[in-house]
Amino acid sequence: MKTNRRILVLGIDGASWNIIDKVIEWGSMPYLKHLLSSGKIKKGYMHSTLPPMTPPAWTSIATGVNPGKHGVYGFHRIIKDRNGFRFYLMRPYDIGYPRIHEMLAMFKLKSIIVNLPLTYPPWETLCKECIIINDWMAPELRIHPIDLEPKFKHYFTKGLEGHVLKSRSESSISMIVDRAYTFAEGVVELMNTIDWNLLFVVFSEPDWIMHFNPNLVSGKRAGKELRVYTAIDDFLRRTYNIVDDVIIVSDHGFTVCNELVNIPYFLKKYGLAEKTFQEVLTVRFSNIEIPSWIIKFLRKHEKVKRIALSLVSRLTRKAKTISIEATTHIIPYSQAKAIMPDAGIIYVAPNYEEEVLSVLEKIPGIQSILVGREVYWGYRISEAPDYVLIPKEPYCIYTKSDKPYINYDTNHHPVGLLGLGGDHIDEVWWKNSWNTWDIVPLTLTLLKLPIPADTDGYYPSNARKYSYYSKWNIAVKMRSIRRLH
Ligand SMILES: [Zn+2]
After folding, report:
1. Per-residue confidence at 288, pLDDT binned at 50, 70, 90?
2. 463 C-alpha to center of ligand 1: Å?
3. What residues have their beta carbon closer than 5 A to ion ligand 1?
4. How far is residue 228's CA from residue 36's CA, in Å, rounded to a whole number?
5. pLDDT in tens, 371-388
């Protein structure tokens, strides 16, 4: 059963072929250009989760199931209590399905997981032998096992603030480019030091530089930010020949929208919310609560922001333990009949479905209103959003609550990319059009492991199957029993 194959899953957050093709044309990804033109990498399309959001899409890529089974519908976990919407930022133990590194561990194969969303704290995993470097959506950056921190941590902490700044200024772009190079260096160093079978690494920088950057997304000539793609290309060049097979994957694409409709604004305007979700939410930076007005202020004042960010990170280092449990909020139903926590997903107070639907039908820019229970399926369907909104082109759906529209900006697009290359791709199947949950059966087959019995992904009918979920579920229960004692 044991294999010595080495598979690289190279995640490029927010990438799509129309943008990558342009980047190649501009000469910024010469190695990928060579792999594509020599036929070494096949080019396919990735259909993101609905709506196309980073946490559910990466979790589907890593679990092989739709959000109805893994339970990640957005950045927050929303639970409809008796009196209101209770919510907190998603954590790894909120995920209701094993991820690929936990599956590999059941067969004693070793994974290195870098920057996969929802991996903080990295030691909260049922995968003792895994190496996990947590993602940027966390109060701090840590490595499991901890003894790797002195040698490797500095590669991954550099330029983390870049995600707050995104491509709003030249200096933020430099910071993000620097981060991509240092991060890639750290991953190469790690993969050469340690024995492994799966390296799953997500580069978030392309997503950060495409937000607020319509010039790049629309394919007009871009500037320094192209070096982010060169950093990834360089990483691919250094790794391609030392791995057996490569799966290049993104969680969604990007598009330019002429008009972004701020749904929470309309929910408030039509009397469905005294306060929107966004107004209630205070952005939490490590163990310090930062109200959203400060964030807004900082966005406007670049210099002050840099000072504030370094202050926050200094305070963070001082704080010994960081509790992310304490961040639960509640919005009583008396204050809101509907909330939209993230772009396109709506949660409705009990018995207000029809009233909310009639309001949603009045909001311009919406192509269709889907019922959550019909979009997703599985054991965690009870936590699904009530409605999922699909925008009508050229509109996009956005979450600001202070004005009805924003003009001309970038937003996530439902189609991302997939690339497949290496020594054993003839052993697996090929299709042009992929779903996020197809990646797990594909990767497991390349590693000669059985397919999860209840995966949503595609696999051939004669494939061997295994109950990863049942085995994992028992381990999760054992762990919670151990916690109580
Ligand atoms: Zn993303």
Report:
1. very low
2. 31
3. 13-14, 54, 207, 251
4. 19
5. 999 999 999 999 999 999
CA of 111 to the centre of ligand 1 (A): 22
Average pLDDT over residues 101-122: 96
Which SS3 state, helix, strand or coil, does residue 69 take?
Answer: helix
Residues 290-320: tens digit of each pLDDT: 444 445 445 444 445 555 555 454 444 434 3
Tell me the two tokens of residue 22: 């342009």
Q: Are 411 and 254 in contact (CB under 8 A)?
A: yes
DSSP for 399-430 reads --SSSSEEEEEEEEESEEEEEEEESSGGGS--
Rounded CA-CA distance 142/81 in Å is: 33
Question: Rounded to the nearest whole angstrom, what is the distance from the C-alpha of residue 104 to the centroid of ligand 1?
Answer: 24
- Ligand 1 centroid vs 390 CA: distance in angstroms? 18
> 423-465 pLDDT, tens per residue?
999 999 999 999 999 999 999 999 999 999 999 999 999 999 9
Tell me what pLDDT residue 296 has.
Answer: 47
Domain residues of the chain, as ranges? 7-255+412-484
What is the CA(320)–ligand 1 centre distance, in A? Answer: 30
- CATH number for domain 7-255+412-484, candidates 3.40.50.1950, 3.40.1190.20, 3.40.720.10, 1.10.340.30: 3.40.720.10
Give the predicted TM-score (pTM) of the model. 0.91
Q: How far is ligand 1, taken at its centre, from the CA of residue 482, in Å?
A: 35
